[in-house]
Specification:
6 helices; 64% helix
Length: 118
């Protein structure tokens, strides 16, 4: 395995998505979005891009905006029929939301890597 400090952000987050419990304990959509928000804030404090552009990319990907921050945008994409209780997602919605979160994040980071090479 590559050392964390040698990984691209895309490789790093792929590892988080494969083993989320290693990073947040009991994986949940909320724990993982909090982890990603912390990563983003730390990146911003240290001059790295972090998740800069992520919210706007999600809005474009979804095709519309609303008052939700980026975790809500991910939920709208993952659960297009909505949800009853944001804090108590049924297990199948939780699993789907986590799967979609990391799929979207990988797509976002792949686009950013591609743009940086051009």
């Amino acid at each position: 395995m590559t050392d964390f400090d040698e990984m691209s952000e895309r490789e790093y987050f792929a590892g988080v998505g494969e083993r989320p419990g290693m990073f947040v304990g009991r994986p949940s959509f909320h724990a993982l979005t909090a982890f990603l928000t912390g990563y983003d804030q730390s990146s911003a404090r240290h001059g790295a891009p972090g998740l800069e552009g992520w919210h706007g990319w999600l809005v474009t990907r979804r095709g519309r905006d609303c008052s939700h921050a980026w975790p809500g945008q991910v939920l709208h994409i993952a659960l297009p029929d909505g949800w009853d209780d944001l804090w108590e997602l049924p297990p199948e919605h939780e699993a789907r939301s986590i799967e979609v979160l990391f799929r979207l994040l990988d797509e976002f980071l792949a686009n950013r890597e591609s743009s940086a090479r051009e």
